[in-house]
Amino acid sequence: MPNVLKTSIVYRAIAGVWQTFGRAARQVATQVQRVDAAAGRARSTPIDPDEEARVRDVLAGSRLVRLIDAAIDVPPRAWRSSALRGWLEPTAREFRSQPAAEQVRLIAWAVVVATVTHVALVVAFGEPVGWPTWATWISFLVIAGVPAFWSHGVVAAWANRRPWVRRLLREPQPWQ
User: Fold this and answer.
1) Ramachandran angles phi, psi of 56, nearest 5°
2) In this structure, what DSSP letter does residue 128 have?
C-alpha cells in the first residue's frame, strides 16, 4: 500500500473496525462450537411411551383446539351443502375430462384475461404507473401467453422433464 493510504485516518479507522469485527466473529464462532459440543454430550431423557396418549388427552380436552378443529372443518362442510357446488361440479368434471394440453390452455387464457382486466382497471381508475409496473405486466402476459398459445409444447416439456423430477413427483412428499 502507498504510504498515503496507510497514514489515512479513514483507512486506519476501517482497518481497526475490521480487526475488531474479526476478533468478535472468531469469539462468537468459538462459543458456538463449545455450545454445540456440550449439546452433543448432553444426555437426552428416554422417550416415555405414555407421553403421546397424555398429549392426545390434553388436546382433546382443550376448548381452543376444538374451536380450531371446528373452524378448519367449516369450509368442507359448507361446500358439501352448497348450491353453488351443484352448478360448478359439472364444469369441473368437464374440465378434468379434457386432455392435459387443453387444461393448460384454458388455465393460461384465464390468467391472461384476469391480467388484462386488472391492467385495464388500474389504468382506468388507479394512480398512474411507471415503467417498472408496465414491464412487469407485459412480462407476465408474455409468460402466461406461452402456455395459452403453445399448450401442447408445455405439456410435452412437462412430460419429458428430467428423470429426477419425475421420481420426485412419484414419491410422496412431506407436504402431500
Assistant:
1) -60, -40
2) -
Cα separation, 128 vs 133, in Å, equals 10
Nearest-angstrom CA–CA distance, 30 and 155: 53
pLDDT in tens, 27-69: 988 888 888 888 777 777 777 778 888 888 888 888 898 888 8
The C-alpha cell at 157 is 416439456
Residues in CB range of 37: below 8 A, 6 or more apart: none
Cell numbers at 158, concatenated:
412437462
Our measurement of the distance from residue 79's CA atom to the centroid of its chain's CA atoms, rounded to an integer in Å, reads 26
117-156 tens-digit pLDDT: 999 999 999 899 899 999 999 999 999 999 888 888 887 7
Distance separating alpha carbons of residues 162 and 116, to the nearest angstrom: 34
The residue ranges of every structural domain in the chain are: 3-41, 50-97, 99-176
